[in-house]
Amino acid sequence: MTYSTTVPAPDGKGEFAIYVAEPATEPKAAIIVVQQIFGVNADIQRKCDLLAQEGYLAVAPDMFWRMEPGLQLDADASSSWDRGVALVIRFDTDTGVRDVQATIDKARALVGGRKVGLVGFCLGGRMAAFAAARTDIDASVGYYGVQVEKMLAEKDTLAKPLMLHIAEIDPNVSAAIQGEIHRALDDHAKVTLHDYPGEHHGFAETFGVRRSELAAREADARTMAFFAEHLA
After folding, report:
1. Which position among 63, 146, 208, 216 has the lowest Cβ density within 10 Å, counted as fewest Cβ atoms?
2. Which run of H or of E encompasses 1?
3. pTM of the model as a whole
4. For residue range 104-113, what is the model confidence (pLDDT) as tens digits?
5. Pairwise CA distance, residues 129 & 147, whole Å
6. CATH number for the domain including 44?
C-alpha cells in the first residue's frame, strides 16, 4: 500500500509531505529515499515501491517543500533540468539535514523503533553523506552524490556505515573531486566506496534514457546487501 502523509518541520515553519510505501508483511526496517533535483517524482516513488516489495517500509520526503512543494519533474526533459538546478542552488544543506532527521524520527516510529536506513541520489547522495555524519541514521547509501566533498571535514563524526556509488563520467563530480573523496574516505572503517568506470551521472535511475542497466543492477545489488547486513 502507498500513501502520503506529513511530517512537522523541525524549525516549526510548517510541515512537509512524505510518500510512504508499505510492504505486504511486517517491515524488516525502514529506508528513506531521498530525491534528485526532480522532486519525489515517478522514479523516486518507484524506488520506494520496489523497496516495499523487498520487505522494507520506504519513505520519500519532499526536500524542496520550502521552495516548491509537491514538485515532480521528468528527468528526460531539458526544461526539468533548468528548473531543478535553479532549486538546488537555493537548497540549504543544513536545513535539509534537519528535515532528514525529522523523517528518520517519523520512519522509526512507523516501524515501531526498528532500524532506519537512507538511500539518496544526486542531491540525495549528498544528503546520505551528511546524514551519516550528523543524524542517528543506522546506515546510508549515496548514488552519484553532488557536493559530498563538503562533508569530508566531518568524516571523523561518521559512526554508522556509509556506502557511496561514484560514476566516473560525472559532470557534477569531477575526477579531482572523486580523488579528494577517495583520499579522505578510502581508509575509513565505516565507509565503502564503489567506482563505476565509464558510467554517467544518473546511471541507476529506474526510468529514462540515463539508466545503464548492468551498472544499475550491480549498484542496487550492493545496496540491498549493505542494507540486509546493517538494518537486520
Report:
1. 208
2. none
3. 0.97
4. 999 999 999 9
5. 9
6. 3.40.50.1820
